Amino acid sequence: MTPLITRGMLEQLATMLVIGAAVFGALAAWRAYKRDAWRRPAISGGILGGLALASLAFAYTAAPNLPTAPVWARFATSPIPATPDHIAAGRATYLAKCAICHGQRGRGDGPAALTMVPRPFDLTVHVPLHPDGEIDWFVSEGIAGTQMPAWKDQLTETERWQVIRYLQELAAGRP
Ligand code: HEC
């Protein structure tokens, strides 16, 4: 099950709200300095600031702390077509670097995962749940608070997208 909202998403929302609050705050200050009507922007800023606090409160209480890629990462698309060559190359990289934790078939049952907390999720379930760019962000940057390493210095961009293509094929039950 994917939750609708995670701690990371609420943190991103709070950041945007704080930026909005700062803009209105600056406008209110400028108007006050000019002896102009400053109350409306001040109230708007206050409301945004309050909403930011509310999202943070929710983020650290009810919302689950799951891996969350930044908003901008979601827009990246794969430069690698799903051709047999790329999929075979992705499979080779996967078996060499990822299977030890994620398991031969991506089920999260690799030998290194047995004692791991949190355990790697089943990639055949989780990869299709995320846009390409989000998966690439997880693979490139790693996942804080888990044993998932950052691969951006170990694998080239092409190699990362090939692995992702392979995982998408695996999830679709094709290879
Ligand atoms: C040392 C063990 C380890 C290795 C090696 C490893 N991972 Fe992970 N990976 C994890 C753990 C633990 C998580 C966090 C739980 C989760 O999100 O599945 C994770 C998470 C992920 C996720 C996010 C899944 C999701 O939707 O939450 C992806 C995608 C992923 N790994 C791909 C890879 C790929 C591709 C490689 C090889 C290049 C790799 N991993 C190598 C342990 C590992």
Topology diagram in text:
Elements: H1 7-33, H2 39-59, H3 84-102, H4 123-126, H5 132-141, H6 157-171
Helix pairs in contact: 1-2, 3-6
Bound molecules: heme C (HEC).
Explained architecture:
With 175 residues, the chain is mainly alpha-helical. It folds into two domains: 7-59; 73-171, Cytochrome Bc1 Complex, Chain D, domain 2. The protein is built from six helices and no strands. The chain has helices at residues 7-33, 39-59, 84-102, 123-126, 132-141, 157-171. The relative contact order is 0.13. Heme C is lined by residues 67, 97-98, 100-102, 112, 116, 118, 120-121, 126-127, 130, 135, 138-139, 143, 146-149, 151, 163.
Give me some keywords for this one.
single chain, 175 residues, mainly alpha, Cytochrome Bc1 Complex, Chain D, domain 2, 6 helices, 55% helix, binds heme C
Give the total of domains. Answer: 2
Give the strand tally. 0
Question: What's the number of helices?
Answer: 6
What structural category do the secondary elements indicate?
Answer: mainly alpha
pLDDT averaged residue by residue: 93
Bound compounds, please? heme C
Task: Give me the CATH fold name of the largest domain.
Answer: Cytochrome Bc1 Complex, Chain D, domain 2
Helical residue percent? 40-55%
SSE order, as H and E?
HHHHHH
Q: Name the beta content range.
A: under 5%
Principal-axes geometry comes out as elongated
Return residue spans where pLDDT drops below 50 for at least 5 consecutive residues: none
**Rounded radius of gyration (Å):** 21 Å
CATH class call of the largest domain = Mainly Alpha
Report how far the terminal alpha carbons are from each other.
25 Å
Major sheet attributes: none
Based on the coordinates given, report the CATH architecture of the largest domain.
Answer: Orthogonal Bundle
- By CATH, the superfamily of the largest domain comes out as Cytochrome c-like domain
